[in-house]
Amino acid sequence: MKIKRLEYYDRAKGWQLEPVEFSNLNLLVGVSGAGKTKILDAILNLQKIASGESLNGVEWEIIFSTKDNEEYIWKGKFNTIEKSETSFIYESGSEDQAEILTESLFLDQQLLVKRESTQIEFNRSVLPKLSAFESVVEIFKNEKLIKPVWNGFRQINHSDETMVSQKQIYHVPFSLLLSKYTTEEDIINSEFRTQVKLALVYRNVPKLFEDIKNKFVQIFPTVEDIKIESFNGYALTEMPNAFKEFPFVYIKEKGVESWIDQGDISSGMYRTIIHIAELYLSPNGSLIIIDEFENSLGINCIDAVTEDLILDQGDLQFILTSHHPYIINNIPMDYWKIVSRKGGVVTVRSAKELNLGKSKHQAYLQLINKLETYNEEAEVA
Predict the structure, then answer these.
(1) Tell me, what DSSP letter sits at residue 175?
(2) Are 14 and 103 members of one domain?
């Protein structure tokens, strides 16, 4: 999916995102605390809502297109429940769970689903009482007109793979995945994390893996080879079952006899290969979210990966945040989204709206001055 416009209000946490327009490449810049990460969190929260989660006090309106270029408008509102400070986990369907008060979904300006209180109308037909906690996207995910929306939200890729997390560990043995996902198309369109896709390509589509590896070696010429294999640093009996077949990244450097396993690979190298793999292995129409793009990347990584994002967007959408002068200076100002906050209200403006200079250098200097001004205003508020 590609987001065109987003408006978001979190009443429970007391912050609001004013309407913001997105293009294929979006660089969110602003001082610390301006709300850049909150914008990413809002998108990820909508992904959760689309999958059936209840989020207390959230109100939203989003316009987006699917991979078939169909335009949808989805908006809704949960009620706000005052929760005790010690209440952290709410069971699905419990009295503490927020209900959806209103919700609507449009396709090309035509109303598909309308919800008011406990009544849902789908294609002009009033339906029996359904879950008050789950979105219509989740409830009707198998309907022909709704499924592209559900699938679209599942194609939001939050690129935070600095190390292997529990989310990446699959209970299904990797050998079974290898036998099922054998083609490039199947792997790209799967819902696995990037590292798992990379491992499947390594075994089943070696030519594509070679392309990814060559791109990485151009950035790190000291690297001789890359492989993706199960971890062999401990006896299998000493490892959790989930890790026994999980594929890890290994690199071989020139002049070094042994392979370097993922635990000893620099975070910059690891993030770089994941970012490169995302460019190759994300389905058409995917949205890739990267918070603090420069984190753990050396200057050689930043240079090459930033250029790839600019030149090789393909049919992907990127929403990035960054403080790094190199990244800001090397992404055209047309893609800058300047984020500011006054109290609990987050606002996003384009470089054009702020009348920034025509040259990159002039625009960057003016941007720095603007950010300092916004920071002073936020502190006063």
Answers:
(1) H
(2) yes
What gap in Å lies between CA 57 and CA 77, rounded to an integer?
7
Percentage of the chain exceeding pLDDT 90: 51
Say yes or no: 20 and 124 in one domain: yes
| Residue (of 57, 156, 67, 139) closest to 105 by Cα position | 139
Q: Are 19 and 337 in contact (CB under 8 A)?
A: no
At residue 378, the pLDDT reads: 55
At residue 88, the pLDDT reads: 44
DSSP code string of 220-238: -TTEEEEEEEE--SS-GGG
- Does residue 174 register a pLDDT over 80? yes
Q: Quote the pTM value.
A: 0.86
End-to-end CA distance of the chain: 36
> What b/e readout covers 182-218, taking b as 16+ CB neighbours within 10 angstroms?
eebeebbbbebbbbbbbbbbbbbbeebbeebbebbee
What's the domain count of the chain?
2
CATH number for 37: 3.40.50
Please give the backbone phi and psi of residue 77, each rounded to the nearest 5 degrees, phi first: -155, 125
Maximum alpha-carbon separation in the chain: 70
Q: In the prediction, which pLDDT does 123 show?
A: 80
